[in-house]
């Protein structure tokens, strides 16, 4: 599928489907990146569905507490829990997963929403470019570390758990150079000095959203058809968001962004409806949601590149390299993958 700027405009000017609802009584929901924007609005929607536990995972304790208080007050949902998590640190991800395994006996819905969009090269404490680590590597790590709990919950409940990775329709416009497509380790290539230039960093967010789509499809391909877990990637649309905070720092880009937002942007609440849809909708057509790319409350084709032979090869290279990187950081991951995924 190709998507032009005109297609984006049409999507943004069309009616946003209403929020999906369900009874989440007895269920556990985790929303990562839930203190602001679409993650916060999605957490409020889930809170109104009365889950047994709603955990909002945030990097900032002060912002997380403010979000927690508002969910408790506005939604009348007192059990909302705040857990701290920094996706720019592999050790923080492992600590979160360890805590979850100790303190939670089920996981029905995991929404991996946290992400960054920066045009400036900035390494993490683990020496990865920050967008690559936050948007892809750590997102994959937490998803895989919590995989056993999601699968076990699906088996006990008789209803597939849902893993939702927040991607974007900008993956349609990711342009991958041949040397990256053909690399045995494309992530390392994107992390190299050659790809720290302003031009490369200007496209990094698009690259990371493509990696999200690859990860979801590769993971779902390795789950047995009988495994009660559905992974999908979702496009929240172009919304008002603090994600683009860097664009507001310079007068020209600030002016351009303000015009675009006034003409096309959905509210954060409208964008959050897509996350909720990916998490709870189409329970009567579970197979339809497996490995899917969800946009505007329906399953749509990902980019032509994703579906191409080059895209499939890169997807497999990205998966293999991701597993190699993450098992070095978290050796316990190796046994999880061996037990739950087909080789």
UniProtKB/TrEMBL annotation:
Taxonomy, superkingdom: Eukaryota
Gene3D superfamilies from the UniProt entry: NAD(P)-binding Rossmann-like Domain (3.40.50.720)
Pfam families on file: adh_short
One Gene Ontology MF term: oxidoreductase activity
Entry keyword set: Oxidoreductase
PANTHER family, per the entry: PHOSPHATIDYLINOSITOL-GLYCAN BIOSYNTHESIS CLASS F PROTEIN, PHOSPHATIDYLINOSITOL-GLYCAN BIOSYNTHESIS CLASS F PROTEIN-RELATED
Protein name as catalogued: NAD(P)-binding protein
Species classification: Eukaryota, Fungi, Dikarya, Basidiomycota, Agaricomycotina
